[in-house]
Amino acid sequence: MLKLKLHWQILIALILAVIAGSLTGTDSHIAGVTFFSVYDFLGTLFLNALKMIIVPLIASSIIVGMANMGSSSDFGRLGGKTLLYYASTSLLAILIGLIVVNLIQPGIVDGQPAKDLIGLTGDISATLEKVEGRGAGDVVDIFIRMIPTNVMAAASSNGEMLALIFFSILFGFYITKINNPGQETLRNFWQGVFDVMMRITDLVIRFAPIGVFGLVAKVIASTGLAAFQPLLLFFITVILALGIHLFVTMSLLLRFIGGIKNPLLHYKAMFPALLMSFSTSSSSATLPVTMDCIENNAGVSNKTSSFVLPLGATVNMDGTALYECVAALFIAQAYGLELSFGVQFTIVLVALMTSIGVAGIPSASLVAITIILGAIGLPLEAVGLILVVDRVLDMCRTSVNVFSDSCGAVIIARSEGETNVLRNP
Q: Which residue of 183, 204, 244, 358 is most buried, as measured by CB atoms within 10 A?
């Protein structure tokens, strides 16, 4: 097992997790210890290890990247390209979701709204407590949170990655504006921190198959496979839209803008990161693996990846934006609402804005969905309609988020004149 490549180890762990979770459920136990608690222990331990390295890895990688970038014109050029790519792909993802959900109409069953048929499924009290009082005005809060009042407090909270990234960009940029020996000292210090964090990351990643097994087995044991049947059409709609964006849109971008003649090579290069993101449902937790794959497998320089990928883990949420749009329209259909073009355009705009500020952690998009529901006048309780399938769909849309980040790194690296190993095998 240990001689296999990492992605094969993770894939085997995924299969074993589905089998184990299905067989044991939440009640099976040995000597008073439930299998579910073992799954939870393994998954939590691994997820904690990943979260442990997020802050120092993001801070050091961005600061080193900015310090090595040089002039302010380099920063402006790279930053502009990155933000343009992220905004464009998120918009494309939302439009794909809009088209697919209008064609399939999962909220309509036998010509009638599905509200009575589906009902409010699952315990939504915890979700409502988190999102109570949310509204469209919360979009403004995204920009307020970008500038931290206390950078140390922002660093201690996984939900404030945008603030940490903003400070790290400023810090790294202004390292280049001071004189030696201070500049050289800071460069060497942060380069050393980054090198140490990459070593620790390698250590954590070695235990990925065990962590993946625990995380996925826990989900399957608690929800089972039969729980998805009442919302099967909605589930299929989201998966189909995500699949189109992942395999069609991204392939076309890699081929015609990224210059990779065979996009399958990039999918292969990013396979470990895709499996990791699927297992953890966290773009932030997957970031160490994403950086490892994009640099060592896809051949993108650290200068580009250390700026593009950490920013993408917070800002670029293609799968999340798509899911928010489909979920809002599904709920509207289930309530029997006929949404005009103007209302649907509002959904597209709010989904694009809220996806930017969604934290890269599991199920964070549920909060963003309530913002959209508030914008079109639907009750927040409607979130309960999708809670049954949200966990698995969260795993899928996170993989799309991470893959889009990696495509952005390849495309921007090409625009910067880098020679990609996948472009020139």
A: 358
Provide the angle, in degrees to the nearest 10, between the axes of the packed helices 208-223 and 35-69.
Answer: 130
Query: Taking the CA of residue 290 as centre, how many other CA atoms within 13 Å lie in the half-sphere pointing to its CB?
Result: 37
Helices (H) and strands (E) in the chain, counts: 20, 4
Burial class (CB in 10 A: 0-12, 13-18, 19+), 267: middle
pTM of the model: 0.69
Both structure tokens of 88: 């464009």
53-88 burial, b if ≥16 CB within 10 A, otherwise e? bbbebbbbbbbbbbbbbeeeebbeebbebbeebbee
Selection from 310, 275, 354, 70 nearest residue 187 by Cα:
70
For 176, which DSSP code? T
- Cα–Cα distance, 212 to 252 (Å, whole number): 31
Residue 33 bridge partners (DSSP): 30
Q: Is 110 exposed, middle or buried (0-12, 13-18, 19+ CB in 10 A)?
A: exposed
**SS3 assignment, position 158:** helix
> Tokens representing 147?
């500038």
Residue 149, number of CB atoms within 10 A of its CB? 9
Tell me the average confidence (pLDDT) per consecutive run of 10 residues in the chain, 425 residues long. 69 83 80 84 82 77 73 69 88 92 84 62 44 48 71 69 77 84 89 84 79 79 60 88 95 91 91 87 82 88 83 79 86 75 72 60 58 64 64 85 92 83 57
CA 65 remoteness from chain centre: 22
Which residue in 177, 151, 186 sits closest to 166, CA to CA?
151
Domain 6-415 annotated CATH 1.25.10.10: no
